[in-house]
Design brief:
Blueprint (H helix, E strand, L loop, with lengths): L1 H7 L2 H56 L22 E7 L4 E4 L14 H7 L3 E6 L1 H7 L4 E9 L7 E8 L1 H49 L17 H50 L4 H33 L7 E4 H19 L2 E5 L11 E4 L1 H17 L6 E9 L2 E7 L7 H4 L21 H11 L3 E6 L5 E8 L6
Helix pairs in contact: 2-5, 6-7, 7-11, 8-9, 9-11
The structure holds adenosine-5'-diphosphate.
């Protein structure tokens, strides 16, 4: 039961049902149309024969009247009428008042009824055609017998005006129609069945690659992320799907590997200070130490704890940036204010290192927008702060670190320049990676997360960040962020 239900829910089943329904409606409409056309054609032919037959009879009467014979009307029902098979036609003449005058012998004692509108026929003299049944006709042709009857009003010189009626039994017509109808009723289900089977097979054929994709996707696990769906033979819709899914798997694998690396690096970064602190504690445990030694160990512990706090802070900021969380509540943030706050915060550290911090804010003219960015103040602050911290940290004493905010519509740029050692060419492409650090003897204190955070924040604000080495030494970091909405 459940497997049947599974079948019913498949796309293949739905496609087949849809095909069969559409075919069914089309077949039925087509059959109905063909039948109607056929009926019309046959009826037209019958009518034409009745008109021809009545013309011939009228001609016969006119000739007889011309020749002055006794009863010219009798001529209309003479069996020897030229080339026409008398027996199949029923002929009856009535006077203008409706009294039956002569009838062909095959009518026996049956009278063909005059149509209700027979008085009107006197005016136009056009033949009137109708299919009649029941009553007198039933007596002649049986209960379901039908007859096509032509009635016309005739005026022949030398004879009193009369109605001529010519009839033909519709037996053959009705049998043919029934046969045709039966054939259609037989063909339609057979056609639908064949169509259904064909579409079931066709649907299977076209859906097989999709099932394969599903199977491959099921086989994928974190451990087998390198698996791909075999490339398609034809670049049709399914081929496109395979390529798209494979590209998606590429991105997924990249993201997953990056995540793995990040977790490993993060664990390592967190473990290092813990190991150091543990080591210090174990040294202290062994024997009594002098007050000086205790002091030294304690300051070592405090340093490591500070580093640990830094790493945790950075990881949290990165996680927030990754999750895209903060930007669900954005507000216009002035980059002038962010740069001012950051510069003020880093001023004491810079002075201590003998580095001069120079701040240059954007000064928009009256027709220019304020340097506002739609975003998260804390994140933007963290981004600029990391750049300024690096500038100060990697500059030798006596140098200048410039922080500039500049409008380049529709963007606002924050540029941080220094005159430090710069970044060696082979490392410059990787400095924005998490935990990536340029190996330097003189500075072992960083975490390698600052620039990754800056890049994450820039991306979250639909902006970008670039770094280049300056001629004459040092680095230039440029962050470009789109101006707040309604400002452009
Ligand atoms: P860190 O905490 O090590 O500074 P970052 O992600 O901020 O981590 O920087 C990554 C690496 O890029 C650093 O190891 C440093 O060597 C290099 N770097 C960053 N900013 C500068 C700069 N202004 N001048 C020279 N090197 C820099």
């Amino acid at each position: 039961m459940s497997t049947m239900w599974q079948h019913v829910r498949t796309l293949r089943f739905k496609l087949t049902v849809l095909y069969v329904l559409v075919f069914g409606v089309l077949f039925t409409l087509l059959s109905w149309f063909v039948l109607a056309k056929w009926e019309q054609g046959v009826l037209d032919a019958v009518d034409q024969r009745l008109v021809d037959r009545s013309d011939a009879a009228l001609e016969q009467i006119e000739r007889a009247a011309n020749e002055g014979r006794d009863s010219p009307l009798e001529e209309a029902v003479q069996p020897q009428l030229r080339g026409l098979r008398q027996s199949r036609y029923y002929v009856q003449l009535r006077s203008a008042t409706g009294v039956s005058i002569v009838r062909s012998s095959n009518l026996r004692n049956v009278r063909l009824p005059l149509p209700d509108n027979h008085q009107e026929l006197k005016k136009g003299k056009r033949p009137y055609l109708a299919t009649i049944s029941g009553g007198e006709i039933a007596r002649l042709l049986g209960a379901d017998g039908e007859m096509r009857v032509l009635t016309r009003y005739c005026e022949v010189p030398g004879v009193l005006p009369f109605f001529m009626q010519v009839g033909l039994g519709m037996g053959t017509f009705n049998t043919s129609r029934a046969t045709l109808l039966r054939t259609f009723l037989m063909i339609i289900p057979i056609g639908l069945l064949a169509g259904g089977v064909a579409s079931w097979l066709l649907a299977r054929r076209s859906l097989t690659p999709i099932r394969r994709i599903a199977r491959e996707a099921q086989a994928l696990t974190a451990a087998r992320l390198d698996r791909r769906i075999p490339p398609p033979v034809a670049m049709d819709e399914v081929g496109e799907l395979v390529v798209t899914v494979n590209q998606m798997l590429d991105r997924l694998e990249d993201a997953f590997r990056a995540q793995e690396r990040f977790v490993a690096d993060a664990a390592h970064e967190l473990k290092t200070p813990i190991t150091i602190v543990k080591g210090i504690a174990q040294v202290l445990e062994k024997k009594e130490r002098t007050a000086e030694e205790y002091d030294q160990c304690l300051s070592g512990i405090v340093d490591e704890m500070r580093r640990l706090g830094q790493v945790v802070d950075s990881l949290l900021t990165l996680a927030r940036a990754d999750a895209g969380m903060p930007l669900s509540t954005t507000a216009p943030v002035s980059m002038n204010e962010v740069a001012t706050d950051v510069a003020q915060r880093w001023q004491p550290v810079a002075s201590e290192r003998g580095v001069r911090l120079v701040l240059q804010l954007a000064m928009p003219r009256s027709d220019e927008p304020e340097p506002l960015v739609d975003g998260d103040n804390d994140l933007l602050d963290a981004m600029v702060s990391n750049l300024v911290q690096n500038g100060v940290r990697y500059s030798p004493s006596g140098e200048v670190v410039e922080v500039e905010v500049r409008l380049v519509q529709p963007y606002v740029r924050v540029i941080v320049r220094d005159r430090g050692a710069g970044i060696p060419a082979k490392h410059i492409d990787r400095v924005f990676e998490r935990f990536y650090r340029v190996p330097r003897v003189e500075d072992p204190t960083g975490t390698g997360l600052g620039l990754a955070i800056a890049k994450g924040v820039a991306r979250l604000h639909k902006g970008r960040i670039d770094v280049s080495n300056r001629t004459g030494g040092g680095c230039e970091f440029v962050v470009e962020l789109p101006l707040a909405n309604g400002q452009m």
